[in-house]
Design a protein that fits this description.
The protein is an all-beta fold. Helices cover 0% and strands 53% of the residues. It has no helices and 11 strands. Strands 2, 4, 5, 6, 9, 10 and 11 form a 7-stranded mixed beta sheet that branches. A 4-stranded antiparallel beta sheet has the order 1-3-8-7, with no helix packed on it.
């Protein structure tokens, strides 16, 4: 199983970033995929999840700003992040079951 997140970077407050997660090694379309984040000094936090049927959930802290989607034909999950805040700064990971991919760093700073 491989999960590779990408798309992070440095952005100013109020800006946007689009994260991608490329998955392989399992029956992608059958499983929910989640995005998590970990900020320095804080525990890992669930950000959003998309079920195999496309049902989405979001942490209260990102509702209305982040949008998760998936493309089963490409085995990919996306996280569109808008109106970014400094408190969104973290290492972002995608997750399937007990598998974690390498994270991508998102830094929101002026």
């Amino acid at each position: 199983v491989q999960l590779q997140a990408s798309g992070g970077g440095l952005v100013q407050p109020g800006g946007s970033l689009n994260l991608s997660c490329a998955a392989s090694g399992f029956a992608f379309a059958k499983y929910a995929i989640g995005w998590f984040r970990e900020a320095p000094g804080k525990g890992r936090e669930g950000v959003s999840c998309v079920s195999s049927h496309g049902i989405t959930t979001y942490a209260d802290s990102v509702k209305g700003r982040f949008t998760i989607s998936r493309d089963n034909a490409k085995n990919m999950v996306f996280l569109e992040m808008n109106s970014l805040k400094p408190e969104d700064t973290a290492l972002y990971f995608c997750n399937y079951m007990s598998f974690w991919g390498q994270g991508t760093q998102v830094t929101v700073s002026s």
